[in-house]
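Hi there, hope your week has been kind to you so far. Do you reckon you could talk me through the fold, stretch by stretch? Thanks so much in advance, here it is.
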Amino acid sequence: MASGHMKSVHEEPLPPAHQNRGTRPLAEYLRDPAHVRSVAINGLFVLALFYTLYFGRPFFLPVTLALFLDLLLSPAVRALARWHIPRGVGAALVLAAVLGIVVYALTRISQPAAEWLQQAPKDWQQFERKVDGLIRPVAEFNKAARKVQDVADGTEGEKNTPKVEVKSSPNLMTYALGWTKDFVAQSIVLLILLYFLLASGDMFPQKLVGLLPRPRDKKRAVTIARETEHAISTYLFTVAIINCCLGAGVGLILSFVGMPNPLMWGIMAALLNFIPYFGPLVGVGVLAVAGLVQFDSWTHGILPSICYLCLHGMEANLITPTVLGHRLILNPVMVFISLMFWSWLWGVVGAFLAVPILMVWKIVCDRVEPLSPISELLGPQRLSPEPAFGASIFRRRLHTGGRPGRDLRGSGDRQDGGPG
């Protein structure tokens, strides 16, 4: 009887994977017209949301910036509240301090930046003369290739014929005035909204939690909201401090190297570090051009960009992962996709907000159980990956004394709390 029972155990077919999970195959799911309609409606909703964010940029951009700045500055307002300073007064003091720092930094770098921009065309010509020996062979090869292509296409004579075309140049002053007007208007809206958010404190989240029907849901929502707000505030404050320290280090090293206006370059490095990948590349390129123009020797000319690249590499690969920890590190592929998407959606400001928005979404998904698969997708590769299927079967066979039939049939029971 025992041998017959073991034989039946071995010969019993395993149920399909989708039956174990209680789900239906994708083909059967798509045969239902209601499900197809649901997928189509959800897709249309996502597209409508994207285009709403794009065309509603004058409204959504200040609101998003105000929410992030509120998370960044709320700890300072709470610290003042613990000293029995009213939240309205504390919010005004924090905003005044931030505006004072920004105005001071702008006054210190405005004149050097204006002079550098005015000198930029001459510096670029000098840079071209310096690297002319390196790029001349490539330029001559491209010129010869274009001539061969024109002869092959029979368009060489047409290109030699001069063409007169009148183009109306846009009014640069009108464009600049329009951009300045929009910037000032959105900045005023941002400051007013930020003040109200800082002064109100937890009133707005508490009102949202009060809309939930059951007390258990309210308690869970309050816990998730507090943990999420604390994690996001810590992340934004930590990243801001790290970038400021990076900018200070870059400015200090460039002053030792002999680069003029080190404060301007340090602020540039701190701001560009908020934009992953592209920001440091732009910083290295600008410092390389400025260094080669400023100094005569090639070694001294590329030294500022090398120093900046070394500091950024140390920050990105050692300091930031150590300070933030593994849970607040993002998947590089998702970071790049987020950077492209928000840059397309909101321009330069969207590039600055790409990583904070992605990190906020990951922190929320970490604390909401149904969204945990999205958090796993946004996170980095695990340092100790899950064992392969064969390795897990081998480990379970060790626990069952080498009886594979019992192991395969009882594996689901052990996952629910059995031995193993």
Q: What stands out?
A: Confidence is low (pLDDT under 50) at residues 1-12, 14-23, 385-420. The longest helix spans residues 87-130. The radius of gyration is 30 Å.
